């Protein structure tokens, strides 16, 4: 993991001191709310329905045990004993007091955490594959590149006044567990025909009011030119992105308005014109290697890949077998596995994690995963490097803490935003819908197979509903909550936006409607087809009909 | 439930962000039942009264909220304000 140096530490110290004084002046009435709002947002402090909300950045979703313990401490001491993991691999605390925030940020700085650039018109968290550095299918660990981009992006003087927020994702596998195509800028690590490393660069993706998938700007940018090329992409956005209309200010609108060809032309022109600056931003192999050294793989002990013990344990305990089947993924090192920790216990709140659970995971990570934990963009956690021989004992500990629901990738593994129960932007509740669906589908989710349900409590789409196999959007109609359902979305390599399947329905009809849609899928699917494949093949008509007839 | 609507003023407390209601006479209360209620036509005046405080004003984001009386309960008309008054509708926390 990247370790802060003296410069980083001093920077955070100064930042916290500056913020502490801003809070003092605010509480004394020397700063108005209008003057203070943008200052607190620069440190990730929002005002929501019930309290202040603090969003802490978890760079590319990677935490050390010490950091996870730090978050648990914040939850216990300054919040209501829990935190919420988000679709950008960050954490939110929902019950924060303004007067506590300087102490909270001072404390978090001691474990290399902060809330900088988790809000406002700046670069946001650089997200990546939660299995980075462990997955068998990755070309290289993407995280060193994430850290390089993070440092480049942090308080970049030229890009401190972007038209709007800017979200970057970096992926290094063919599968894409990072939802690259719904990002403002996406980078796919790849090799060219000569075997050299570089990036496919995509731009203009985003959800919200106007969902659009990112398009390819260039198929291959040599690794050395990564930062220079990103600079060119940003420079064009910074110059031509709209600042006159909040709803048209993201890069997706610019790319759509220009068309990808004209956007690409502008980027390539800028890139060519950069001259000496390009050399200054170049990433020589030595620089990349130095950063990669900070993310060196753990010294895996020789661990047998022999699965005899595992097979015995699975045969003896069907619950363990189920957990291994859905929550354990292949690792590149022999004898090891990737464990997905489910934060989707049926009937609980998706993505929420108690302080006690965080402390347990920190301890388990220390003992069994080289002190490392990851956050996924679908609101689960990961222990990335677990010996197969330790899986059974790990499962027992996780199960005792409610962290072993065997549902990763299944119907109850729902992405759900906080919605109207917490969020000032929401138009409807989302959490009760996710709970109703999870408990209703639990008994048949294994039969259904992989299914991604995503729920947003408003048009801003923090729950990624546009790219759910089944997407649900909570709106308000005549003072009552009303839910629009879409089908056929997906967020991986074959990303697609969902199609609306009928008029919006009231809350108490959502579970039945989703049941009908799943019944259609089960009836029509061919061998191995996942839900979006069937949607693509048969179209929306059979699904729409099932909902119409049911009404 | 009586259909007659009233106006009250709400905001979030500056120092801790908690939901508060204007109780009149410069006082703020976390309990909606203790909020000062006025006729619809007097809403603007109530808001002005609630806003009139030397800095630091104890509350931020002040708005008028429409509510009805239900026995001795005060019930906001919108779901959003009901949730602000009584907290998340789901079990949360450790």
Ends distance of chain B: 36 Å
Report the average pLDDT across residues of chain A: 96
Distance N to C terminus of chain A: 54 Å
Q: Tell me the number of helical segments of chain B per DSSP (H or I, 4 or more residues long).
A: 2
Number of self-contained structural domains of chain B: 1
Oligomer: heterodimer
What is the overall silhouette of chain A?
globular
List the helices and strands and how they pair.
The complex is a heterodimer of chains A (551) and B (94).
Chain A: H1 6-27, H2 33-41, E1 45-47, E2 52-56, E3 62-64, H3 65-78, E4 82-85, E5 91-96, H4 101-109, E6 127-128, H5 143-153, E7 168-171, E8 185-191, E9 197-203, E10 215-222, H6 226-240, H7 251-258, H8 260-273, H9 276-280, H10 285-293, H11 308-316, H12 318-327, E11 328-330, E12 336-341, E13 352-354, H13 355-368, E14 372-375, E15 381-387, H14 391-400, E16 415-416, H15 431-441, H16 445-448, E17 453-456, E18 470-477, E19 480-487, E20 499-500, E21 505-506, H17 507-524, H18 531-538, H19 541-550
Parallel strand pairs in A: 6-7, 7-8, 16-17, 17-18
Antiparallel strand pairs in A: 1-2, 2-5, 3-14, 4-5, 4-13, 8-9, 9-10, 11-12, 12-15, 14-15, 18-19, 19-20, 19-21
Chain B: E1 5-13, E2 19-24, E3 27-29, E4 38-39, H1 43-51, E5 59-70, E6 73-76, H2 79-86
Antiparallel strand pairs in B: 1-2, 1-4, 1-5, 2-3, 5-6
Q: Could you describe the 3D structure shown?
A:
The complex is a heterodimer of chains A (551) and B (94). In chain A, the strands form four sheets. In chain A, strands 16, 17, 18, 19, 20 and 21 form a six-stranded mixed sheet that branches. The longest helix of chain A is centred in the first third of the chain and has 22 residues, at 6-27. Chain A is built from 19 helices and 21 strands. Chain A is of the alpha+beta class and 551 residues long. In chain A, 38% of the residues lie in helices and 18% in strands. In chain A, helix 3 packs antiparallel against helix 13 (355-368), helix 7 packs across helix 8 (260-273) and helix 17 (507-524) packs across helix 19. Chain A folds into four domains: 6-109, Sulfite Reductase Hemoprotein, domain 2, CATH 3.90.480.20; 142-293, 2-Layer Sandwich (Sulfite Reductase Hemoprotein, domain 1); 308-400, Sulfite Reductase Hemoprotein, domain 2 (Alpha-Beta Complex), CATH 3.90.480.20; 415-550, 2-Layer Sandwich (Sulfite Reductase Hemoprotein, domain 1), CATH 3.30.413. Chain A has helices at 6-27, 33-41, 65-78, 101-109, 143-153, 226-240, 251-258, 260-273, 276-280, 285-293, 308-316, 318-327, 355-368, 391-400, 431-441, 445-448, 507-524, 531-538, 541-550; strands spanning 45-47, 52-56, 62-64, 82-85, 91-96, 127-128, 168-171, 185-191, 197-203, 215-222, 328-330, 336-341, 352-354, 372-375, 381-387, 415-416, 453-456, 470-477, 480-487, 499-500, 505-506. The mean pLDDT of chain B is 95. Chain B is built from two helices and six strands, in the order ββββαββα. Chain B is α+β, with helices and mostly antiparallel strands and 94 residues long. In chain B, strands 1, 2, 3, 4, 5 and 6 form a six-stranded antiparallel sheet that branches. Chain B has one domain. The A-B interface holds A 26-30, 32-33, 47-52, 75, 80-82, 94, 96-99, 349, 352, 354-356, 420-422, 426, 429, 431-432, 435, 476, 479-481 and B 12, 14-19, 54-57, 60-61, 77-80, 83-84, 87-94.
């Amino acid at each position: 993991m990247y370790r802060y140096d003296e410069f980083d530490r001093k920077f955070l110290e100064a930042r916290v001191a500056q913020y502490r004084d801003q809070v003092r002046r605010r509480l004394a009435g020397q700063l108005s709310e209008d003057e203070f709002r943008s200052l607190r947002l620069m440190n990730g402090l929002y005002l929501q329905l019930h309290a202040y909300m603090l969003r802490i950045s978890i760079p590319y979703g990677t935490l050390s045990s010490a950091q996870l313990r730090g978050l648990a401490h914040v939850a216990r001491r300054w919040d209501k004993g829990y935190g919420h993991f988000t679709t950008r691999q960050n954490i939110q605390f929902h019950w924060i007091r303004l007067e506590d925030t300087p102490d909270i940020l001072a404390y978090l700085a001691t474990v290399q955490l902060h809330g900088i650039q988790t809000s406002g018109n700046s670069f946001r968290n650089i997200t990546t594959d939660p299995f980075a550095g462990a997955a068998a299918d990755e070309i290289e660990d993407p995280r060193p590149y994430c850290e390089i981009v993070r440092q480049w992006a942090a308080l970049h003087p030229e890009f401190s006044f972007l038209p709007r927020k800017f979200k970057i994702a970096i992926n290094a596998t063919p599968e894409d567990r990072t939802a690259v195509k719904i990002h403002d800028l996406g980078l796919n690590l790849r090799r060219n025909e000569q075997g050299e490393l570089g990036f496919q660069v995509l731009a203009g993706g985003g959800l919200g009011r106007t969902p659009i998938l990112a398009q390819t700007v260039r198929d291959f940018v040599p690794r050395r030119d990564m930062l220079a090329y990103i600079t060119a992409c940003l420079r064009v956005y910074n110059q031509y992105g709209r600042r006159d209309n909040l709803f048209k200010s993201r890069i997706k609108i610019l790319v759509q308005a220009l068309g990808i060809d004209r956007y690409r032309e502008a980027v390539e022109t800028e890139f060519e014109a950069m001259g000496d600056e390009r050399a200054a931003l170049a990433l020589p192999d030595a620089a990349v290697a130095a950063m990669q050294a900070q993310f060196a793989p753990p010294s895996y002990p020789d661990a047998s890949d022999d699965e005899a013990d595992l097979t015995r344990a699975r045969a003896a305990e069907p619950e363990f077998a189920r957990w291994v089947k859905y929550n354990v993924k292949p690792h590149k090192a022999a004898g090891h596995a990737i464990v997905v920790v489910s934060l989707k216990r049926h009937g609980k709140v998706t993505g929420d994690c108690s302080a006690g659970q965080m402390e347990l995971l920190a301890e388990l990570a220390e003992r069994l995963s080289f002190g490392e934990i990851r956050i996924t963009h679908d609101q689960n956690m990961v222990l990335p490097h677990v010996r197969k021989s330790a899986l059974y004992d790990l499962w027992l500990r996780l199960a005792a803490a409610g962290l072993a629901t065997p549902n990763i990738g299944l119907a109850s593994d729902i992405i759900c935003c906080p919605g109207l129960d917490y969020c000032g932007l929401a138009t409807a509740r989302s959490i009760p819908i996710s709970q109703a669906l999870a408990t209703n589908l639990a008994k048949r989710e294994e039969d259904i197979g992989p299914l991604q349900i995503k729920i947003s409590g408003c048009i801003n789409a923090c729950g990624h509903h546009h790219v759910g196999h089944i997407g649900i959007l909570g709106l308000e109609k005549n003072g009552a909550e009303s839910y629009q359902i879409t089908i056929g979305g997906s967020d991986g390599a074959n990303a697609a936006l969902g199609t609306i399947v009928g008029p919006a329905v009231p809350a108490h009809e959502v579970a039945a409607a989703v049941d009908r849609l799943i019944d259609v899928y089960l009836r029509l699917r061919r061998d191995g087809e996942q839900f979006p494949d069937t949607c693509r093949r048969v179209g929306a008509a059979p699904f729409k009909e099932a909902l119409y007839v049911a009404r | 439930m009586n259909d007659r609507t009233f106006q009250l003023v709400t905001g979030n407390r500056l120092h801790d962000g908690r939901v508060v209601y204007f109780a009149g006479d410069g006082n703020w209360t976390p309990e909606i039942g203790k909020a000062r209620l006025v006729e619809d036509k007097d809403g603007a005046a109530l808001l002005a009264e609630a806003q009139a405080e030397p800095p630091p004003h104890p509350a931020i984001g002040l708005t008028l909220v429409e509510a009805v009386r239900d026995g001795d309960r005060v019930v906001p008309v919108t779901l959003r304000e009901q949730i602000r008054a009584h907290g998340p509708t789901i079990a949360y926390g450790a």
